Structure prediction request, 285 residues.
Amino acid sequence: MKKESAKKRLMRGVRKQRLKTITILPSLITILNGIFGFAAIVVTSKGQFSLAGYFILLAMIADMLDGRLARMSQNTSSFGGQLDSLCDVISFGVAPVFLMLKVMESELTKWINYSDENFIQRFIWVTAAAYLSCAAIRLARFNVENEEDTSAHMNFVGLPTPAAAGVIVSLIIFQQKHMDILSVLNLTIIFALPFVVLGTAMLMVSRIKYPHVLNQYLRGKKPFAHLIKILLLLAFVIWNLQAALVLIFCGFAVSSFGKWLYTKMPILRPHSDLLEETQQNRETA
Prediction:
């Protein structure tokens, strides 16, 4: 009898936690993010690599819009966060590395013996598995540590999964666009892709702070020079979209890592900066 009553009390507690209402529009856009990721996987399996990359970029746009709409309407919820992470695993975890695997398989067969027993193929699969694992860990950690306060969304801890996927996708889109023109550069991109994937995987689970671009650089009043920089960047995007994507995503991933490396390795810093830091430490002590 005691066990039954305890079970009934537990079930009553579970019923109290049942989801009764959700926000429709942000949830639909979040699901659209996952659908774009699934579409990228489907077209990748058919050999349409550039189209798959653009589907992942559309998933990024949907990922930006759903959170923005939820915060604007003040309807953020735990359900929305969990749904967003599940869709992100598809769009920015599975889809990019599946795209990378298929591109590598398609391109390397032209140059080497790409068989199941080949060490290179096993290494590529390991890097893909590492990326997917780190993406899942990054999203789970974000859900646990995330705060609803807007001021807490000025920085990301670790490279965000959309940005990590953007690094991989932008390189593949650039390579597919110019594969018949710049053969040496294309071959370099192909052989560098597994190492890029492994590097972005490590950055995702790192504690390096990355800025929230929309909150830090596009909201509120900014110097006039910011407008000029944005206009120049837009002009570059219009002139050469593929090269601009590489510059934006790779530059974002490397910039914060470079700043972190600069602060952690004294050998990279000027002697004057080290003297100034030493003086400040003495004063605070």
